[in-house]
Amino acid sequence: MASPPPNLAAGASPGPDTSVPASPVLEGRDSPDLPLTMTASTVLMALPRDATAALAAAGAFPLEKIVVRFKPVGSAPPIRRELVKVASAHKFESVVAYLRKTLKVADSESVFLYINSTFAPALDEVVGNLWRCFKDSNDHLNVAYSVTPAFG
């Protein structure tokens, strides 16, 4: 019995060669001398050379601490300090822990917090991100709280 031709290895199909030739763009991607249009080169010259520094500043919050305004809903007791400063890098769980401690709520009882009386954010949501998206005209983050489910 004759052996198959060398171009028909095990699992290969007969026919024209279907392999994709190497792209000249991929071969030269390590080259620093890529041609650019004038508009692209102008834009690229304005970017910082160190991308790490640019990315570090991109996630920074404009304020180190933000003001949170607590509003009781329903039968929830009011707290003495309606306005509280919270570090913008803290997670929302720190706001919940502060309010539970202030209201002296037992571990078995629930407290429900809502941003702008609309939705309950996740506990791992960053307070600065919530403030950035949902602050009011006074730059306060409004947090409504209740001891029973109040909204949606």
Automatic annotation (TrEMBL):
Signal peptide from the UniProt entry: none
Membrane topology of the entry: Peripheral membrane protein
Keyword Transport: yes
Stored InterPro entries: Atg12, Ubiquitin-like_domsf
Pfam family, one: APG12
Keywords in alphabetical order: Autophagy, Isopeptide bond, Membrane, Protein transport, Transport, Ubl conjugation pathway
Location of the region described as Disordered in the Swiss-Prot/TrEMBL record: 1-33
Keyword Transport: yes
Compartments (UniProt record): Preautophagosomal structure membrane
Function, as annotated: Ubiquitin-like protein involved in cytoplasm to vacuole transport (Cvt), autophagy vesicles formation, mitophagy, and nucleophagy.
The name this protein goes by in its record: Ubiquitin-like protein ATG12
UniProt source species: Staphylotrichum longicolle
